[in-house]
Amino acid sequence: MAPDGTEPQTGRETRLLVLVVGVAVLVLLLLAQWQFPGSTMSVVTPGGAPLAGLAARATFDEMAGTMADVIGRVSPLTVAVPLATILEPDPRDAAPVRRQAPAPATTPDDANAAPVPEAWALALRVRRDLALAYVPGGLTVMSREGATFDVVAHDGPRGMWLLRVPPSNAVPDTLSASVRTFPNFSYVAAVTATPVGPTVQPVFVGRSDTVTDPGWSHALVPASVAPGVSPGTLVFSLNSRLIGIVVDGERGPMIVPAPAIETLVQALDAPEGTTP
Asked: Nearest CA to 190 among 179, 203, 180?
């Protein structure tokens, strides 16, 4: 302090500057606490992509499991029938014949040798001991070792054969539990015959339209809605219910729906003189 009792000017200015800076820092700290309050950091799991819900639910493994389940359920409802070339005029050229079978195939070179099937048809069980099969033109049903197939009736123009087959343990509900309305935009199971039994593959059915055919009691569905299916294929839903049978029609392969199959079976299994 100066002798006259006054404080030096520079000292007062320094203390004032320090005070102003300190107040400013304090205000800034208070503002920071109010604007950015403390919070506990946590890891947030990001949500799924917006289009994730549109992805197919069933993976390839799941579809394979579904097909295995279908074939396990429908196998007891089917019978693999061997076919051979007809050695006489095609019965399709005549009117529907009932309870008369074409001559069995023989082997000219070796009559004692068992004939080798040229193709296989997959017959659908409609009773414990009756099955319905589509047989292409030029072929006939033949018996094989351990299984004899008797022709109960056949409809030549439509290629449908009602066969007596080895009886099953249970009464099949193939027709009574069938699908009554053809499905659109869904997967179906296409079941076909092989020498060792039926096999199955998934087929997607798009938009379908019906075609009226005077030869059938119900409208048919062009098989083109299910790419890859061929005449003789049995079409089932993924819950193992019959949808129809693929046949060769005048307009190409057609899917005969279950109600038409049921009507045909009733006609073929009816007493003589009944019109299918």
From this structure: 203
Percentage of the chain modeled with pLDDT above 90: 41
* Chain centroid offset of residue 236 CA: 7
Q: How confident is the model at residue 72 (pLDDT cuts 50, 70, 90)?
A: very high
Q: Provide, for the chain, the percentages of residues in helix, strand and coil under a 3-state DSSP scheme, each rounded to the nearest 5.
A: 25, 30, 50
Domains in the chain, please, with CATH? 61-106+115-268 (2.40.10.120)
| Strands (E) located in 91-138 | 97-98, 119-125, 130-134
User: Which residue from 182, 184, 189, 77 is spatially nearest to 122, judged by alpha carbons?
Assistant: 77
pLDDT in tens, 239-261: 999 999 999 988 889 999 999 99
Give the whole-angstrom CA distance, residue 210 versus residue 218: 9
Residue 91 has pLDDT above 60, yes or no: no
Length of the chain: 276
Q: Give me the residue label for tokens 């006054």.
A: 6
Number of Cβ atoms within 10 Å of the Cβ of 65: 12
Residue found under tokens 């020498």: 195
Could you say which DSSP state residue 157 is in? Answer: T
Helix H segments across the chain?
A: 9-35, 60-74, 258-268
Q: Specify the pTM.
A: 0.69
- CA dihedral (28, 30, 34, 39) positive or negative: positive
